[in-house]
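Protein modeling request. Please complete all fields; requests missing the sequence field cannot be processed.
Requester role: graduate student
Desired output: 3D structure, token encoding
Chains: 1
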Amino acid sequence: IGAVIIAHLLGAGQTLLDILAFLYVMLRVFYILMYVSDMPTVRSAVWAAALLVNIAILFVGYR
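Delivered output (63 residues):
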């Protein structure tokens, strides 16, 4: 939530911000599914992807 607020305050494009925020939430849901399914390698890759999306949200406001 904090990254989205920061990006919004920096004037990020709303459409891109919405897409990235939705992608982050979906990756976190998928992470939980991989945790329950006991798939550690895929889970780690999904966690890393979610982290990169979170970082992208922070930087999308800097144009």
